[in-house]
Structures are given as structure tokens and as C-alpha cells.
Specification:
The chain is of the alpha/beta class and 296 residues long. 43% of the residues lie in helices and 22% in strands. A six-stranded mixed β-sheet has the order 6-7-8-3-9-10, with helices on both faces.
Length: 296
């Protein structure tokens, strides 16, 4: 089964090509000449100790930062190539169909759960309304777009198990449900690349397992690429097709979960010491505990 999966995923085209990405803040080099690729319909994880530069990579990809150096090429399956480093940040989700979540939950807490999913489709609804005129006049094009937006929101509410909370204020949800709502909101943008910044942070083991299944479902059923930043190795090693490891802003490893798991350079970066041979059986728990200690 594993080899068949590797053969199948090997056929997937490259969705994102990051070449020589460098990000400087004055004299501080946060990202130093990092290159990697992420394939379509695969989960690519970016891992590394705190301060490794993972979120800075996301911020460059999604337009929050303009890279000092680098080429960030997204090969959209339907629209062609986008050079993300040349785009204004607000146009990246609109035109290149790149959606993201954040380390800290960023919902609209006073809006209902359903409203959070509708507002994620704002750009599509605005275009359908002719930028408000069609909406004010109740034109058929806008009414159809509005029905489609509600149907898509209901689909993700059902998929995430949030249907019975649709009318609740988003800020009143338990933390794990807020995490799920964030992913649902990003998926309502119908992205080709979904960037998730530590989606398992703060989740208990049951919630982490549910997250694993949701991300695999999104990859397999919606056939998009997922770029994942995560400290929880039980998530990373279980669902990732490809892992990129950063340390102090530089790439130190790049390969399959098995290759990364047994890379001495990765072990040193996490544990601060060199191990001989393969990764010990309990090292994944060591990595999890280490990450949690750093977070606190």
C-alpha cells in the first residue's frame, strides 16, 4: 500500500516552487536562501524548533511580507502561473486562490458560525452583485450566488460537525471547534493551496486525530495542496507526504516522513544532541514534549 501511494503521489504536478527565499529584517536574517517545492494534492509539512522561520515563510507566501530575495511560483491548475512575491497581499487569495489560517484563532467572534463562512465568500458575492447594485436590486445572478454561498457554508458546517452550532457566536465555541471553523472558513474560499499555521495547537489527542482525518479528506476529496506548519509530530508524521525542516532560517532536511524521522541533523536540531542510527521509538513524543515546553 505504501509503495502504491508513493507511485501515485509521485505523478502529482508541482503546485508551489519556492526558490532562494530570503527574508531580512534589518540586520536579522529570518529566512536564509530556502528552496523547496510542494506538490498538488499532497500535504507538505514545514517543521522546526521555535524561531526556525516557519511562519515567516507563510507570511511571504501569503503577502504579509515581501521577500528580500526569492521566487515564489504557484502553478494554478486552471489559471496558470502566479509569482506570489510580485503580488499585492490582498490579491493572493482573490486571484491565486491561496487561503490560510493563523497560529492564533482569527475568527469574527461576534458573528455567527454561519456568518463567518458566508463572509469568507465576500469577493465572489461582490462580483455576482456587480459590486452591490445587483444585490440591492435582487438580481437573479446575485440570488443564485447567495444560495450557492449558503450551500457551501452548510456543506462545511456538516463536514466539521458544526451544523448544530450554526447560529452560535463564533467566539462562544470551544477552542477545538474554533480551530475547525477556521479551516472551514478557509475552505469556503475554494483554494488550490491551503496554508495551515499550527492547526493542532492546543488540541487534545482526540481532536488531533479528528484533524488528521479532516486534512486527509480535504486532500483526497477536494484534491488540493496543503502546506502545514505544525509542532505536533503525531500529526506531521501521520499525514504528511513530504516534510521540509527549518532551523535558524535555513533548510536542514527535505524528504519523506521516514527520511526526516531518521535524519541525524533533524534529531540534533530538536534534541540538541547527535543520535547514532535510527530515531529511538519514543523520539516523536520527545519532539512533542519539547515543542510544548517551548510554547509555554
Amino acid at each position: 500500500m505504501m509503495s502504491a501511494m508513493a507511485i501515485e503521489t509521485g505523478r502529482n504536478p508541482t503546485l508551489l516552487e519556492v526558490e532562494h527565499l530570503t527574508m531580512r529584517f534589518g540586520g536579522l536574517v529570518a529566512i536564509d536562501d530556502v528552496s523547496f517545492s510542494a506538490k498538488d494534492r499532497e500535504i507538505t509539512a514545514i517543521i522546526g524548533p521555535n524561531g526556525a522561520g516557519k511562519t515567516t515563510v507563510f507570511n511571504c507566501l501569503t503577502g504579509f511580507y515581501k521577500p528580500s530575495v526569492g521566487r515564489l511560483a504557484l502553478s494554478h491548475p486552471r489559471k496558470g502561473e502566479f509569482l506570489l512575491e510580485r503580488m499585492e497581499g490582498f490579491t493572493i487569495p482573490q486571484k491565486a486562490d491561496v487561503a490560510r489560517t493563523f497560529q492564533n484563532v482569527r475568527l469574527f467572534p461576534a458573528m455567527s458560525v454561519l456568518e463567518n463562512l458566508i463572509i469568507a465568500q465576500h469577493n465572489k458575492l461582490m462580483r455576482a452583485s456587480g459590486f452591490t447594485i445587483g444585490g440591492l436590486l435582487g438580481l437573479g445572478t446575485y440570488r443564485r450566488a447567495e444560495r450557492d454561498a449558503v450551500d457551501l457554508a452548510k456543506y462545511w458546517l456538516d463536514r466539521m460537525g458544526l451544523t448544530d452550532r450554526a447560529d452560535n457566536e463564533a467566539g462562544s465555541l470551544p477552542y477545538g471547534d474554533q480551530r475547525k471553523l477556521e479551516i472551514a472558513r478557509a475552505m469556503c474560499m475554494q483554494p488550490v493551496l491551503l496554508c495551515l499555521d499550527e492547526p493542532a495547537a492546543g488540541l487534545n489527542p482526540r481532536e488531533s486525530e479528528d484533524l488528521n482525518q479532516q486534512l486527509l479528506y480535504i486532500r483526497d476529496e477536494h484534491k488540493i495542496g496543503i502546506l502545514l506548519i505544525e509542532h505536533d509530530m503525531s500529526v506531521v508524521m501521520t499525514i504528511s507526504d513530504h516534510i521540509v525542516v527549518l532551523d535558524y532560517g535555513r533548510k536542514i532536511s527535505d524528504g519523506s516522513p521516514e527520511q526526516v524521522r531518521n535524519d541525524p541533523t533533524v534529531i540534533r536540531a530538536y534534541l540538541g544532541e547527535e543520535e547514532d542510527g535510527e530515531l529511538p521509538p519514543d523520539v516523536e513524543q520527545d519532539l512533542i514534549d519539547d515543542a510544548r515546553r517551548q510554547e509555554t
